[in-house]
Structure formats: structure tokens, C-alpha cells
Amino acid sequence: MSVTRRQLLARSGAVGAGIAFTGAVEQLFAGSAAAAPTGRHAGYGPLVPDPEGLLDLPRGFRYTVLSREGEPLRSGEGAVPSHCDGMSAFPGRGRTTWLVRNHENRPDAAHRVPPVAGVTYDPGGLGGCTALEIDPAGRVRTERVAIAGTAVNCAGGPTPWRTWLTCEETEDRAGTGNYTKDHGFIFEVDPYRRDRTVPEPLTAMGRFQHEAVAVDPRDGTVYETEDAFEKPFGLFYRFLPERPRGGSGSLRASGRLEALCVPDVPDLSVVQEPGTVFGHVEWKRVPDPLAKETGIRFQDFGPGGITHAQKLEGCYWGGDRVYFVSSFAKTADGSRADHFGQVWSYEPHHRRLTLVIVFGPGTDVQKPGDSPDNICLAPQGGLMVCEDGNGAQYVFGVSRRREVYAMARNGQNIGTEDEPAWGEFAGVTFSPDERTMFVNVYEPGTTFAVTGPWGG
Hints:
This protein has a single domain (about 5-450), classed as TolB, C-terminal domain (Neuraminidase), CATH 2.120.10.30. The chain has three helices and 28 strands. It has helices spanning about 5-10, 25-30, 250; strands spanning about 15, 45-50, 55-60, 60-70, 85-90, 95-105, 125-135, 140-150, 155-160, 165-170, 185-190, 210-215, 220-225, 235-240, 255-260, 275-280, 280-285, 310-320, 320-325, 340-345, 350-360, 370-375, 385, 395-400, 405-410, 425-430, 435-440, 445-450. Strand 12 and strand 13 form a beta hairpin. The chain starts with a helix and ends in a 5-residue tail after the last strand.
């Protein structure tokens, strides 16, 4: 199916936002309030090969390995789990930083999240989260299990009340493998105190292949992405909690789960031009959020159906809108069109959806490569984007001038000489004082702290 921008505008009532990188993108690139424009050229110069073969960075930057899978957890509870994925940083006492880190463990994971009493949901689940406390000198002071017994904890998102929502990217039910309970839920994790993490799923927020979430700090609405692996592809959701201003209690109460519908656009991949705007999109109530008999994306949403998208991944709140990522779309997989990555924004006040950026195609540092995944605002202005594609893997920066630069490259070849492969980056986030970038390499699971001249 080939749909031109003119046809899309005529069929959906959308209005053009002009050329690419206008309108909503200004807030996307704003960074923190104190951020100054970057220098004449984007980025921090070429990457310098790391003699240790772990992480290549620009000159003047350095890294510390905070944690690596298979090593002992500092709590003595077992080994650092495999598959480090989504992550967020929270302020601690005395300029310390707390990191909450997901582990996307499936049943074949080499190192499970140890099943600690009091925070284990299902002993058959090998995934979960670990929490690390980092002191002002960048040393790990504490490292412990934060929640266990969940499965395939891919991404998630922080809340305004300083907890972490960890998401299961699976729909497996009790009785599948060693699982004793249903999976496919969101769980809330307190980064500061393990005894305040309740290992109970937030069932009102739906049971599906969750990827990431973002919370509107004004009213507590939670936006959720779904990374379904096959057709029909995933949906973009919002959860309206029963208590209008959110909070951990309200997420455990009842609420309304809805899915985004762009009239006459069944697949977001057909939208190809940055700056395309859809005004007054619809939200349709999910018939059965628990997917008791039918997966949500298969359910009947009534006349006009619902809008799907392949590889819905990263999701975060910035300014007055939520941003979310479609990592790629392939007609060979069943999408209506091909693309190498999209960033969308949704403005709740105007009910307006905008295609902000289209990535690639490109290779290495010339353009963003394959598949943007986890994404965050950078304190100096712009974005940091984790790549999850083919070939060498990068953390790319996108400057406030819309220029793309390489910030980090994974130096660890986990393939062979004939078929090289590098583990994806994930969980990019910045410390509350904006002096340190934390990022994970998925395999072998490694958490890095990167410091350097961020204001340059």
C-alpha cells in the first residue's frame, strides 16, 4: 500500500506542519532549562578506540564499568543478572544516585534475577530489576535485587513520584514452561527501599507485550508502547488512573485503558514525511485489558478499527507532550511501508499526533543506523538514542541543530570473525546533576558510567 502525504491529509483531516523539524521538535531538542547551545559542530569529535575493547568514546570522555553480568552482586544475593536493558536514574541523599535496571531474561538466560523473599512475583520468572546506589565519586555503594520473578523486563519508565515502572515484554500464561502465574504486566519498583516494592502486577494497565511507559506529571496519565513481534503489530495506549493526579496507590486501583486510533490510518508506517500532523485523534477503550481470551491487539475496537505500528519501543515525557519511537517497519514482516525509525509526539491538550523525526537509512556515523530504541533527552540539549540494529552498535546524539553524531560505540564483538556482532545499547539516562551518562550494553550485560566535558 502506497499512501502519499496529500492522500493522508485528505483522508484524515490532518494539517501540515511545514517542513521537517518544525513545531513540536523545538521542545524535543530543548534539553534542560539551563542547557546552552552546543558548539559550531555537532558532537564531541571522533570516537577514540578503547584499548580495553569495551567502549569507544570521544577524546576527553571516560567510562567506568559499574556492573557486569556474572559478577557477584554486592548484596551477596547471587550473580549480576543477564541482559541489562531499560534503566532510569533517581536522586539520592548526599549527591548519591540510584539506578534501577531491567533484566530482559527469558527462560534460557544464563544468570537469572535471584528470587529474593518479599519481592518475588513468580519463582518461575527469571527477569526483574536490580538497584544500584552510586556515590558522588562514581563508585557503586549498593547493588541489590529490587524485584524478581517477573519475565522479559525490557523497558519501562520513571514516575513523577520517583518510582520505576518495569514492563514485561511477554504474554505467557501460567503453565507455560515454569511459570506459575500469568505474565505481560507492569510492576512498580521503589528504587530506595525494597520493602516498599509490592510484587503485584498493575493489572488495570493491561496485559500485553509491554515495552516502555511515560507518565504525564500533570494528571498521572500513563502512556504505554507495545512491541508485538508479529502481525497485527502493537498499539499505543494510555491509562487514565482512577485518582486523577496519579501516584503509586492510584496505579493499583482501577482505571481506563485506551488505544490510539488515527482515522483512516491503520498502520503508522505509511506516514513518511516529518512534520505531518494529525489533529484530534481518537482514543478507543480496550474491550478486555486482561486479554483473558484474546490478545488486546486482536480485539474488536468497533467501526474504523484501530491503528497499529511495528516495533513500538522507547517512550518518554517532555514539556507538554509524550514522545514514542517506532524502531523500524518492514513490508517483508507485514507492515504497510518500510522505514528505519520514527519518533512521534502526542499533545494531550490538543489531541494532536505529529511525526517528528524519520531516521536513516544510513550507516555508522553518517546517519543514524538501524533501529532507534531507548531514547532520552540530553541535559546539554538534544537527544541520546540507543541503536539496536545490524553491525556495530552506537549511542547517537542528535544536536539542537538537528545534526547526528556518534557518542559511543560498543567495542565488544560477541559474534565471530566471519560473522561479527555487537550487543545493542539500552537504558541511556543521565544522573540528576547531569554530569554522568549511564548506559547499558545488553550482551554481555554491562552498565557503564560516562563522564566528560558535557557542556562543550
